[in-house]
Amino acid sequence: MTDKDFNNCVDAYSDGVYRFIVKNLGHEADAQDIVQSAFEKLWVNRAKVETEKAKSYLFTIAYHQMIDHIRKDKRNNTTDNFEEVKSNVNISANGELKQILLKAINELNPTQKSLVLLKDYEGYSYQEIGEIMDLSESQVKVYLHRARLILKEKLVHLEKMRA
Amino acid sequence: MKINTTNYEEYFLLYIDNELSTEQKTAVENFIEANPSYQKEFELLKQTFLTPEHIEFEDKVLLYRLEDMEAKLPSTFKQSLYRNEAKVIEGYFNTTLKRSIASVAAIVILIFGYNLMPTTGKQNIQNQLANNTGLPIIKNESSVSVSANSTQNRIAQNEVPKIAQNNTKPSKTLPSIAAEKADNTPPVVINESIANSAGQHVNNENEMRASPSANNTTVITAVNEKITSNETSIVAEAKEAFENINTDNPDRTIYIANMEIDGDKLRGFTRRIGAFIKRNKTEKEK
């Protein structure tokens, strides 16, 4: 991968990686740090990484760094930054349903959240998600379906509440 | 595979996840058309799909990289930065080797020291005998018996002739003992017999000496004359026996476990090692 390829990757994937991390983590500055170090790693290993695989490479590194970050965060016992995200990240939200869904997604566990985000935002296949998250294809399928059913139940519940 | 009322949910989810072929997708659509009661369920699950929103990573400038941006120094300048650590000459051996050699040398020295100990001890005893020249030797039973025993021990250790020489000149009591010892060639047996005989002699002599403490020498000569006259033949035999014992080449064989080492050959080697270690020490101290 040349430096030109690398900069093309920055243009093509940095938004996606950042979105994935910030949605998961709920903290802009931390997400930016993770994105930066993911690209840093890509730069260091640019000789080994093929340009076609750069995207999943970036997501894989970013995901694992995020997991590490969450673990550290748990140890430090920091508060949930969900509200901060909601106010800070410029969400081009349209409609109430979306807000409800975002809230519901934030209540999922980190793995389920990542699965939904990688699937819906990035459009990765089960196999690709499995590679990024160190899961088997069937695990991805089962966990993702479970997450969707949870989301569905929440939507049903909220609709009932409103009715 | 067919979609039915038991497996519809998985198909719906796979449909939403876009993991179905176009054929399968139409099959799902057909199923919903055929079973409108599942329409609601399908719509609800569809709503769980998160439509991507645009979130931008604003500081892309931080991420851009250019090969040219990487600092590159001319090779000549780089070479000027290289540093070579001055080579430290640490003698011939590394520390572990030094230690192992030192330990081996220590063992060898210990063994040699042990072997050397008796000879110095012998010398001491010889000196004592020379100083005592018969007079004070036989002052009381216990001291004599002790000295007799110790001399016997030395004799067992290849020093027969020397003691014999010492004894023959000044004190005429000891030759008799030596003679008796020589008579009984196996050294262990000598110990007992000499202890007994020496005791007897001492007893005799003590009796004789009890009264004339001032004229000791005369008494001793008298006693000695007695003894020598009694045992001249034995002394002759003893001389022969002494010749058989080789004192010039003391056996310096070292036994370490089952290993037999020629001590004489090793001696120079161990000395050299000792000298080397000493030199190293002094150099280090400097």
How would you summarize what this structure contains?
The complex is a heterodimer of chains A (163) and B (286). Chain A has 163 residues and is mainly α.
Structure explained in plain terms:
The complex is a heterodimer of chains A (163) and B (286). With 163 residues, chain A is mainly alpha-helical. Helices cover 77% and strands 0% of the residues of chain A. By secondary structure, chain B is mainly alpha-helical. Chain B has three domains: 8-47, no CATH class; 95-127 and 252-286, no CATH class; 133-244, no CATH class. In chain B, strands 1-2 form a two-stranded antiparallel ribbon. Residues 135-182 and 184-216 of chain B have low confidence and may be disordered. The A-B interface holds A 2-3, 6-7, 10-11, 14-15, 17-19, 22-23, 32, 35-36, 39, 43, 89-93, 97-98, 101-102, 105, 116-117, 119-121, 123, 125-126, 141, 144-145, 148-149, 151-152, 155-156 and B 9-10, 13-14, 16-19, 44-45, 47-57, 59-60, 62-67.
List keywords for this structure.
heterodimer; A: 163 residues; mainly alpha; Rna Polymerase Sigma Factor, Chain: A; Arc Repressor Mutant, subunit A; 2 domains; 8 helices; 0% strand; B: 286 residues; 3 domains; two-stranded antiparallel sheet; 2 strands; 65% helix
